[in-house]
Design goal:
Helix content: 40-55%
Radius of gyration: 39 Å
Number of strands: 16
Strand order of the largest sheet: 3-2-1-4-5-7-6-8-11
Distance between the termini: 86 Å
Number of helices: 32
Shape: extended
Structural class: alpha/beta
Strand content: 5-15%
Oligomer: single chain
Length: 905
C-alpha cells in the first residue's frame, strides 16, 4: 500500500524531533532532510536499470541499516552516502553534513545512539517509498516541504528565511499566469527565482505549468541561492518533486548572478518568482551600483538606498524578464509608499506600467519576519494597453497556526478568483487607474488609500440608550436574515416608532434562538443549502471521484471539483461559498487526498485491504534468548498471531458494520448498554454504601473507590460462616464425632433432633458417611439465618456480587458477539466488489463527512446570527434612566442597611 501523507508526516517529524537533542533546528534539518532524500532515492531506484539515479552496491539505505549501533557508525554512514553522491555526480550539490561530526552530534556513545536512532526512524516499514512509484511522487516531495516548514517554524527569526510558506507559494504560482501557457515546437518556457531558498516557490510555480506527453513540466527551472546548504536543500526538493532537471546554482545574485546570456548580460526569462530577504541591508556588498556591469539600475533616476535592498531585488527581476515576461514577487509594504530614492524608482516603474496587480497579505505569515508583506504581480506584456493596477486587500483572511498566521485554502482561492475575474469587491478588491495613483496620490501605492476596510461593528446609539428601543440601523445589519424570512422579523420585532426608526422585541429575548430555529423559511433555506445545493454538486462530481485511475492528476481533480463547489454555493443566502470551499479543502488535506492517492496507486480494489494492529511479544534470537537494545530494554516486536484490532485501509469498519451488519451491531449496542447500566448501578451502590457506616465499607480498597472480587468473596464467605441453626450445629457436631469415631454419640444426636431425618447422612448399609455429612451441613447452612446484625451487609454484598456476575456474563457475551462480527467483517472486506467499494467510499465516507461539515457550518452561521439578534436586543434592554434609578435604589438600600447597623452619615 502507498504511503499516506498524514502518516508519513507525523511519523517522521515526531520521531526526528525527539532525537534532535541540542542541535539547532536550522542545522539539524540538513541531517534529517539528507537522510529522507537518501532513503527515498534508495527505495525508489535500487535495482532499477536505466533509472534517474544509480544506487550502487554498498551505497543504499540497507547499508545504513547494517551499520547501526557500530562504534564507528558516523564514519561509515559518511562513506556510504559519499559513495552514492559520487555515483550520481552530486558532490557539492546537497547540504554538507557529516554524521561523524562530534561537535554537533556528540561523541562516543551519544553520537552512536543519535545517528543509529535517526536511521531507525526512516527504517519504519510505514515509509517504504518503493510502493509510491505509481502514486504521484509529490507525496514524498510534500513531506519534504512539510519538514522544511516545521524546521522553519522552530528556527527563529532570520534562520527560517529559507522557506516560503506553501500557501504563499501556491498563490503566487496561480497569479503569474504560468498555467495558461501552451507547448510550442520551438519554444522552451523558462522559470527563474533569483533568491530561491529551499526551492518551494519555484516548485509551486512549475507545478502550475502544463505538462508534456511524458508528464513533465514544459518549463525549464532555474534558481540561485546565496547559502550553499540551502541551495542543496533546493536541489533535493526539485528531485523529490520530479523536477530534477531544474538548475540550482549557489552564489550571491545581486553581486554575482549565475545566469547570463552570450553577451555576459542577465539572461531573460519568461517567468520570475521571488521572495528575497526583506530590506536587505548588505545588498551592495561586492558591487558598485552606479557601475553595475549588468545595467540593472540604468534608466532609473536614482539608486536604491544603501541600507535597504528591496528595490535592488525588484530591479533585478525587471532586468531578468523578457519583453513579455511575468513575475510574482513578495515585498514588504514599504516599497509601496516609502519616499526619497524609492519613491523616484517607484514612480518610474509606474510610468512604464509594469505592475499589473498588488495583493496585500496578512501580517506574520513569513518565518523570518512578522511584518506584513505584499505580492507584486509584474507583467511586461501589453503595457501600452494597461490602464491601471488591480489591488487586493487580503490582509484579514488567515488562520492562526501556533505563533504564526497562515492563509486558508479559501483565502488563496478568494485572491485568485478576485484577480482572475477583475471584479471590484467593496473592502477587498478594486481596479485603480494610473491617473488616480499618479495624479491624486503622487505614486503612493499604500493599499488603505484605495481600499477601506469594511467596518461591521455596530455603533452605540445614544438616543436608544436614553429613550429605549432598538435602532433601525442595527436591525438592518441583519437584512440577509430578514430577506430569507420576513415573517421571522415580524415574529421577533415590532416597529415601535417609525418616526424615530425604533423597534422593540415582540417576544422575550430568551425565546429568540428557538423562534429562529423553528422558522419555516429558515428551515427551508437550511434544506436548500445543506441538501439541495450539496446534492447537485455531489451528483456532478460523482463521475470524477469514482473514475480515478493511474493517470489521474489528484491536484487538478480536486481543484476542478472544488471550483464547482464554489460556483454551486454562490447563490446561497446564508452560507458563504468560500467557507464551504474550505470544508472540502480541509477534508482533502486531512483525509481525502490520502484515499485518492491510494486508489491512484492500487485501484479501488484497495478498499478490500485491512490494516492490523498486533499485540507485542519479546524478540528472541534463534536460541530463544530474549534480545535487548543498547539501553538494556527488552526489544518488543509484533506478534502476528495475536490481533489487537484492525481497520479498513480505505473503508472504516464502522461503515461496513452499519451497511451490512446492522442487526449484529444493534445486538452489540444493546449488550454494551446493558453492561454500562450494570456498571452504573455498581458505581451507585459503591458510592452510596462507601461511608464509615456503609454496608460495603468492609470490602472497599484503601482509597475507598474500588472493590476487588477477592475482598468481596472473602467477606461473603466470612458472613456465611456466621450463619447458625440447631440443625447446622448438629451437623457440624456430627462431623466432629465422625472424625473421632464416636458412632454412639452420633446416633444419640440424630435421635434427639428429628429434623436431621430430612438429610441423607448414611450409606445403604446404614452407616454414616463423611461426604454426606458434609453435603448436608452445606445444604443446612444455605437455609440457615445470619444473626440480624449482619443481614443488611450480607444482602448488600450478595446483591453487588450478583450484579457484578451479571455484568461479567454480559461482557463475555459481548466479546463473543464482537468476535463473530469481526470475523464477518474480515470476510466481507475480502468479497467487496469494486462497485460496492465505490458506493461505500463515495456515499458513506466522503459525501457523508462533507455533508455533516456543511450542516455544522450552517448551524454555526445561524447561531452567530441569533447571537447577534440577542446582542442587539440586550444592548438597549434598559434605558440610561432605568439604570440610574436602579443604581440609586441600590444606593439607598445599602445606605439604609448601614444606618440600621448604627453607621451615621
Amino acid at each position: 500500500m502507498a504511503v499516506k501523507k498524514s502518516e508519513l508526516y507525523s511519523i517522521l517529524w515526531e520521531a526526528c524531533n525527539k532525537l534532535r537533542g541540542g542541535v539547532e533546528p536550522a542545522r539539524y534539518k540538513d541531517y534529517v532532510l539528507v537522510l529522507l532524500f537518501f532513503k527515498y532515492v534508495s527505495d525508489r531506484y535500487k535495482n532499477q536499470p536505466l533509472a534517474d539515479f544509480s544506487v550502487p552496491e554498498g551505497a543504499s539505505f540497507d547499508d545504513l541499516i547494517a551499520v547501526k549501533w557500530t562504534s564507528n557508525v558516523g564514519e561509515r554512514v559518511d562513506i556510504i552516502i559519499q559513495k552514492f553522491l559520487e555515483a550520481n555526480k552530486l558532490q557539492g550539490s546537497l547540504p554538507e553534513v557529516s554524521f561523524n561530526n562530534a561537535e554537533e552530534l556528540g561523541s562516543g556513545k551519544e553520537l552512536v545512539d543519535k545517528v543509529s536512532k535517526l536511521i531507525a526512524v526512516f527504517q519504519n516499514p510505514a515509509i517504504d517509498f518503493k510502493y509510491n512509484r505509481a502514486s504521484g511522487d509529490d507525496i514524498i516531495g510534500d513531506a519534504y516541504e512539510y519538514f522544511m516548514m516545521k524546521f522553519a517554524q522552530e528556527s527563529g527569526k532570520s534562520k527560517g528565511q529559507f522557506y516560503t510558506p506553501s500557501e504563499v507559494s501556491r498563490t503566487i504560482a496561480r497569479l503569474i499566469g504560468i498555467g495558461e501557457i501552451k507547448q510550442e515546437p520551438n519554444k522552451k518556457w523558462t522559470l527563474y527565482d533569483p533568491a530561491c531558498g529551499s526551492g518551494s516557490l519555484l516548485i509551486r510555480a512549475a507545478d502550475e505549468a502544463p505538462v508534456d506527453e511524458n508528464g513533465d513540466t514544459i518549463v525549464s527551472i532555474f534558481g540561485q541561492e546565496k547559502d550553499t546548504s540551502t541551495a542543496g536543500l533546493a536541489k533535493m526538493n526539485l528531485i523529490l518533486h520530479q523536477k530534477g532537471t531544474g538548475e540550482i546554482r549557489s552564489g550571491n545574485t545581486l553581486q554575482n548572478p549565475k545566469y547570463l546570456d552570450a553577451h555576459g548580460q542577465l539572461r531573460k526569462f519568461d517567468f520570475v518568482v521571488m521572495n528575497p530577504p526583506f530590506s536587505d541591508k548588505s545588498w551592495t556588498d561586492g558591487i558598485k551600483p552606479r557601475e553595475d556591469e549588468f545595467k540593472r539600475f540604468d534608466g532609473f533616476a536614482d539608486i536604491p538606498p544603501e541600507k535597504n535592498g528591496d528595490y535592488a531585488w525588484f530591479l533585478h527581476v525587471l532586468k531578468s524578464l523578457n519583453s513579455t515576461g511575468k513575475a510574482g514577487i513578495v515585498m514588504p509594504h514599504g516599497i509601496l509608499f516609502r519616499g526619497n530614492a524609492e519613491e523616484t524608482i517607484r514612480k518610474q516603474i509606474l510610468e512604464r506600467k509594469y505592475i499589473k496587480a498588488i495583493v496585500s497579505l496578512p501580517a506574520n505569515l513569513f518565518f523570518g519576519t512578522g511584518i506584513p508583506a505584499c505580492i507584486v504581480i509584474i507583467d511586461k506584456e501589453n503595457t501600452d494597453k494597461r490602464k491601471g493596477i488591480f489591488l487586493i486587500d487580503a490582509s484579514r483572511g488567515f488562520k492562526k497556526d501556533g505563533n504564526k498566521n497562515r492563509l486558508r485554502e479559501q483565502d488563496i482561492e478568494r485572491i485568485v478568483q478576485a484577480y482572475t475575474n477583475r471584479v471590484d469587491v467593496p473592502g477587498y478588491a478594486r481596479f485603480v487607474t494610473y491617473n488616480e495613483i499618479m495624479e491624486d496620490n503622487q505614486g503612493n501605492l499604500n493599499i488603505p488609500r484605495y481600499i477601506q476596510k469594511p467596518d461591521d461593528t455596530l455603533p452605540q446609539n445614544i438616543s436608544a440608550h436614553l429613550h429605549g428601543g432598538i435602532p433601525g440601523n442595527d436591525i438592518r445589519s441583519l437584512q440577509k436574515l430578514w430577506n430569507i424570512s420576513p415573517a421571522l422579523k415580524q415574529a421577533i420585532l415590532t416597529y415601535k416608532d417609525k418616526a424615530h426608526d425604533v423597534y422593540s422585541l415582540a417576544i422575550p429575548s430568551v425565546e429568540i434562538e428557538n423562534v429562529m430555529g423553528e422558522d419555516a423559511q429558515i428551515q427551508a433555506e437550511k434544506e436548500n443549502e445543506t441538501g439541495t445545493l450539496f446534492t447537485k454538486w455531489q451528483d456532478d462530481v460523482k463521475r470524477d471521484l469514482l473514475g480515478i485511475t493511474a493517470e489521474t492528476n489528484p491536484k487538478s481533480m480536486i481543484r476542478d471539483i472544488a471550483l464547482r463547489l464554489l460556483a454551486q454555493y454562490e447563490p446561497a443566502k446564508l452560507l458563504d461559498n468560500y467557507d464551504i470551499y474550505d470544508c472540502l479543502m480541509n477534508y482533502w488535506n486531512a483525509k481525502l487526498q490520502d484515499d485518492v492517492y491510494v486508489i491512484k496507486a492500487s485501484g479501488y480494489e484497495a478498499g478490500r485491504e485491512i490494516e492490523y494492529e498486533y499485540a507485542k511479544q519479546k524478540k528472541k534470537d534463534k536460541n530463544g534468548k530474549v534480545l535487548k537494545d543498547e539501553n538494556g530494554k527488552t526489544i518488543m516486536i509484533d506478534d502476528p498471531t495475536k490481533v489487537k484490532s484492525f481497520e479498513g485501509a480505505l473503508i472504516p469498519k464502522d461503515i461496513l458494520e452499519k451497511v451490512y451488519f446492522q442487526n449484529e451491531l444493534d445486538t452489540l449496542d444493546a449488550l454494551a448498554a446493558k453492561s454500562s447500566s450494570l456498571e452504573a448501578e455498581l458505581d451507585e451502590m459503591r458510592e452510596e454504601e462507601s461511608g464509615e457506616d456503609g454496608l460495603l465499607n468492609e470490602v472497599l480498597n484503601d482509597a475507598g473507590d474500588g472493590i476487588t472480587k477477592a475482598s468481596l468473596n472473602k467477606r461473603i464467605k466470612e458472613l456465611e460462616e456466621k450463619k447458625s441453626s440447631p440443625v447446622v450445629d448438629a451437623l457440624i457436631k456430627l462431623q466432629e464425632l465422625f472424625g473421632a469415631g464416636q458412632t454412639n454419640a452420633m446416633e444419640k444426636i440424630v435421635t434427639q433432633l428429628p429434623e436431621l431425618a430430612n438429610y441423607e447422612l448414611r450409606n445403604k448399609n446404614g452407616s454414616f458417611r463423611k461426604a454426606r455429612l458434609k453435603a448436608a451441613a452445606k445444604a443446612a447452612a444455605d437455609t440457615a439465618k445470619l444473626p440480624e446484625i449482619y443481614q443488611d451487609e450480607y444482602d448488600a454484598l450478595t446483591t453487588y456480587a450478583a450484579k457484578w456476575a451479571e455484568k461479567d456474563d454480559t461482557d463475555i457475551v459481548w466479546k463473543g458477539a464482537r468476535k463473530q462480527l469481526d470475523d464477518a467483517l474480515v470476510d466481507k472486506y475480502a468479497t467487496l466488489t469494486v462497485n460496492e467499494i465505490k458506493e461505500l467510499l463515495f456515499d458513506k465516507k466522503w459525501m457523508a463527512k462533507l455533508s455533516e461539515d456543511i450542516r455544522d457550518e450552517f448551524d454555526q452561521v445561524l447561531n452567530t446570527l441569533s447571537s447577534r439578534v440577542l446582542l442587539i436586543a440586550k444592548r438597549y434592554e434598559h434605558t440610561l434612566g432605568e439604570i440610574e434609578a436602579k443604581t440609586e435604589a441600590s444606593h439607598q438600600a445599602a445606605k439604609a442597611a448601614l444606618e440600621r447597623m448604627g453607621y451615621r452619615w
